[in-house]
Amino acid sequence: MHASKGDRLVVHGRIVGQHDHEVEIIEVMGTNGDPPYRVRGADGHETIMSPGPDSVVKHAKTSDVEPGR
User: Are 56 and 25 a contacting pair, CB within 8 Å?
Assistant: First the structure.
């Protein structure tokens, strides 16, 4: 799994009725885009994640990334 700052990480729900959880990658702490990632949720909570096989990266377009973030 490879990601860049500004990409979105989607963790799929593992049981019926559980919604997907999507967070913004604000820092790539591994080498060459590898995990772990510092992420920020919609509520502003930040944490460090090493995503598992139930996760996917939605790559941001270059124009979607805010300058200075």
Answer: no
pTM of the model: 0.80
Give the C-alpha separation, 50 to 29, whole Å: 10
Task: Round to whole Å and give the CA distance between 6 and 64.
Answer: 8
pLDDT in tens, 12-60: 988 888 899 999 999 999 999 999 999 999 999 999 999 989 999 999 8
Instruction: Sheet containing 46-49: give its strands across.
Output: 46-49, 37-40, 21-28, 8-11, 55-58
Q: Are strands 55-58 and 8-11 parallel, antiparallel or unpaired?
A: antiparallel
